[in-house]
Give the backbone structure.
Amino acid sequence: MADVIAIGELIIDFAPVSVDIDGYPTIAAKSGGATGNFAAACSRYGINTYVIGKVGDDIFGKLLIGSLKKAGVDTSGVIEDKAVFTTLAFVTIDHLGDRSFSFSRKPGADTCLVADEIDFSVIDNAKILHFGTLPLTNEPCRTATKKAVEYAKKAGVLILFDPNYRPPLWDSISEAKEQMLWGLEQADIVKISEDEIDFLWGLTPEKGAEKILSEYKTKLVMATCGPQGAYLLNKTASVHVNPPPVNVVDTTGAGDVFAGSATYQILKLSKPPDMLTSEDLSTIGKFAATAASLSTQSHGGLQSVPDEVEVLKLL
């Protein structure tokens, strides 16, 4: 029985590890996708985690499933489809370690998940369902995801939404905003980046978090600000946490590691999100920011989740 369920994309990230004399990158395949990264982080800290998604029946799909199993994630909800190829993402990294993406996804297997392929009964006893907007970019996965969210809400499961906005995957800005706002309308907990807040409303992270808390039914907002840390807010308290200084190599998956690490702390505290105190929010934010920072010291997302001992030692 899973405490946390994540539905969405499982993707192979091709990360550059060096550059040859002519400037061409040497790339390494890394298992990823926000869903996989988040699930691996939850599992790393002892949470029973289950993934719902689709990969191709190919070498990359098997690599993804193998990586998730190695991370301790239940992959029985991951479909292998012979008709489509596993989605691939090619990552470029600037001098600060920040990344951008180019996708091979026309269509990718992750977009082809059908609602009839989901075992909804696994959601019944879960505590949290996590989703982002990548499964909302295309049908039939959009409908499948929305049905899973609807089912979870009826079952009393907390909804954790992370927009995870990737511009190249949307047909239009208006469509992206529409689906992101739909996600916010469903969420009990929101993890959102400062870039996504700026994209939606042109606000600061603090003002954006306050807007979400006041205009939606959200109980807890976690706004991440890269090297500037994170701002956590509920109806009774707010805190700003700073990450530790690290040697950044690749920021891929850092936000997902933050979300998974925060989820671990939220479940560990065993309180409703809107009843968390400032001390609770500080505990959640500091642990998550430290775990996310440590994850940036190596390439990829899913494989870069640090051990709890490593996080606590740095804290």
Notes: The mean pLDDT is 94. The chain has one domain: 4-306. DSSP finds nine helices and 13 strands in the chain.
